[in-house]
Amino acid sequence: MLIQNPIRFISAALFVVSAILNLPLYAQKAGKTDAIYSGLPWYDQNGKVVSAHGANIIKDKDKYYLFGEAHSDTSNAFVGFNCYSSKDLYNWKFESIALPVQASGKLGPNRVGERVKVMRNQKSGQYFMYMHVDTLGYKDQFVGYATSKNITGPYQFKGSILFNGKPIKKWDMGTFQDKDGTGYILTHGGVIHQLADDYKSIIAETNKQISSGFESPTLFRKGNTYYFIGSNLTSWEKNDNYYYTATALSGPWTSRGLLAPKDKLTWNSQSTFVLAIEGSKDTTYMYMGDRWSYPLQLSSATYVWQPITFSAGGISIPDYIQSWTVNTSTGEYASKKSDIKVIENTNKLIKYKGNWKHLSDSISTSRSATRGNAFSFTFKGIQIGLYSLSLPDNGYAAIILTDKKGKILVKNLVDTYTKLPSSTMVFLSPILPKDEYTLTVSVSGLKPNWSDKKKTNYGSTDYNISLDKLIIKE
Ligand code: GAL
Q: Where is the signal peptide (predicted)?
């Protein structure tokens, strides 16, 4: 749905907040992850969920650094920008809160900080962090920046970046570093601003607005073509992102249509960055998108990272690759070979508690919206995953994974709502030592929903959980 004005959240149900506060999040140290899995909570080295949205990645020496918005489950107030590092792009180590909430001021308590991007200035060797700064009601937006000598921070917040002495009063933003090291700030609508050599101010408006929508601006270059991706304005609801191409940043920009098949809502995500994974044999261009989940943006918002396909017709993400591998030395990617066993929802070993409807329309599912109703499955193996038929009236599923002594290893809430139905993996445990475990999934009685400042409501209409199937690795 295309909405002409910026869509911003205003409220969320308070009972959700209090219910969540009672839940300890994680109690488990993560195992090694063997691929990029979209749409699932990821765990860092401490077993905590990776919270880095509106993100970007930069490579520094032999590591990739992921910067993104830290979130809470209670409000949209800025809680800092997190930094993680990885060598393989699968396992993320929490490094630091690269920019914490400031004691006061524009990124102090009860403010908004979004879409953080970091670039290294090649001349000074300093790291520059750019971000959208705002009030909680989105009434004081500008592009801010912070600097650090070390990639992981701490970054010093410098306030707004200036162009002719004035702030850039835009909300959604991004960055792009061209091959010659020149840095650019992108803002919604497709405006491109050139940074000064020292990255501390803006010296030119390289490109004027392309379209009135075009949020989450994401730009990358392959060869001599620039690709500019953005979303429609639907707050945290997903929509069909689209893109333009040009051979110069100043345009002209040619509209090239949708990035993913129509009505797939960009595989339920909103763009934020494209990482070029350059290797000895190939370069994989990895689309990075956010699958937002308001109000549980800490626990339940996830990442959609997919390889981009190039053809004469342009770029595309033609299929949702649930899991894929990328060799960071050669730059080549491949779909992950599946070595899993499927447990259908009708399997007699799944124990259902309470009333569940067992439906078989196009897909066989078991559904319930009654809080506390649950199903559980005990298995021997090293990993378990959950596929949900995600639907517009679905809510958050409460997941608990225990060992055979009943000790809780993972506890999490996962979002099973989508505006348009899709069967998708919503949870995958870390890889565990081979043993007996029990997965219990219950109806939490919570659902993602929110409204924007025009009081347009978004999100789910009910609390259903719909089990399509479980998968296990033995
Ligand atoms: C989106 C935007 C996000 C966030 C959200 C708030 O459109 O891309 O970064 O600002 O709105 O509603």
A: none
